[in-house]
Amino acid sequence: MNARQRLLTALDHREPDRVPNDLGGTDVTSICRGAYVDLMRYLGRDPGEVKIVNIVEQLPALADTFLEDDIKADTRQIREQGGSSWKLQVEEDDRYYRFLSEWGIELKMPKEGGHYFDLVGHPLKEPSLRTLEEFPWPDPADPARWRGLREQAEALFRNTDYGLVIGCVFGMGVFEGPQYLRGMGDFLMDLLTYPEFADKLMDHIAELLTVAYAHMLDEVGEYVQVVSVCDDLATQLGPMISPELYRKRIKPRQKRIIDAIRTKSDARILYHGCGSTREFLPDLIDIGVDIFNPVQVGAKGMGDTRGLKQEFGKDLTFWGGICDAQRVLPFGTPDEVKQETRRRLDDLMPGGGFVVAPIHNIQDLTPPQNIMAMYETIHEYGNY
Fold it and tell me: To pair with 365 at 20 to 30 A between CA atoms, which of 228, 242, 326, 331?
């Protein structure tokens, strides 16, 4: 069974020869630059000059030999590119690196001890309809975003057997995007105090996402097996907003995007949502989500992976969840990592419907021996 067959078998909720394995197939299932360099050196490999493919998360392009020999990854990502009217320009002072995103969002990273860029400046200053009309929105139909992707996807589809995944377009959803543009606290208040503005803002982002996914799928839809959408709804302790407010205001707009993707491709829909999301899983199933990521086991209600599988495993493939990324993987011993990894495999593997992946990106300073303890356990116990 090759990698693509293995992935599709698992997504059909059947058991392949072994559990499919993803590292770097999305920008939320990869490994940060420092952790990657440390791991390559631990393995006796020369990381060489590391190319960064996601500046915000500081994600490197992963070497094929590393993915094939050490990780045994079954996936590869097809990644959207920037628009033609924007160029990355990183500035620096004594303390920080900073840049403006295509959306006009300011991001900065400390020069000492910084591992990725944080959002610090939000361009929509006022909750007014005039502000929305005057905002310089990115062009979702800009051909520069997709230039060369058809050739890349076709070559990977025809010349390799990897499962191909489209990463989250624009790196946001209809609920997250407004928080990036307004600031988290301001937009959560907007939902209640300026509902007309909040709805117009979400509608505008939903329209941009719908157009962008349509254009990307016109280019590569026939070659990919999975399309990712991203929209965090929860903190580690529970939902950010009431489920009632979600169902009334957010859910219909998410469904609009997923329905649009369905008209362009038969690929499965992967929904990425960090935190304590168990309460939303029936809603995600209802709007057509096939795959749920990352299964953040350290968040409230998400640690009972056996229960999650029993309750939702007929409808959702779980993608991630393999080792507690906040406690056990960075701070445990290799033996504790192995025990945790074995537990999650035992809970989530039966019957298929599971893809192994990190719970979000493996963070800098994670001991390389712990990372390899996780993968060695996957390779030893991940066979059906």
Answer: 228
pLDDT of 131: 96
For residue 207, give every residue at least 6 positions away whose Cβ sits within 8 Å of its Cβ, in sequence order, or none. none
- Give the separation between CA 349 and CA 351, rounded to whole angstroms: 6
* Interval 166-218: pLDDT, tens: 999 999 999 999 999 999 999 999 999 999 999 999 999 999 999 999 999 99
Q: Pull the structure tokens for residue 299.
A: 């968040």
- Whose tokens are 């890349």? That residue is 152
Supply the DSSP string of 36-74, one letter for each residue.
HHHHHHHTT----SPPEEETTTTEEPPPHHIIIIII---
Stretches in the chain below the pLDDT threshold 50: none
Domain-wise residue ranges, the chain? 3-87+126-381
Return the CA Rg of the chain.
Answer: 20
Please tell me the predicted confidence (pLDDT) of residue 48: 87
User: Measured on CA atoms in the order 203, 290, 74, 31, is the torsion positive or negative?
Assistant: positive
Pairwise CA distance, residues 256 & 253, whole Å: 5
Question: Hey, what CATH topology would domain 3-87+126-381 get?
Answer: TIM Barrel (3.20.20)
Give the global pTM.
Answer: 0.97
Name residue, tokens 């301001």.
186
Residue 72 to residue 82: CA distance in whole angstroms: 30
Under 8 Å between Cβ of 124 and 135: yes
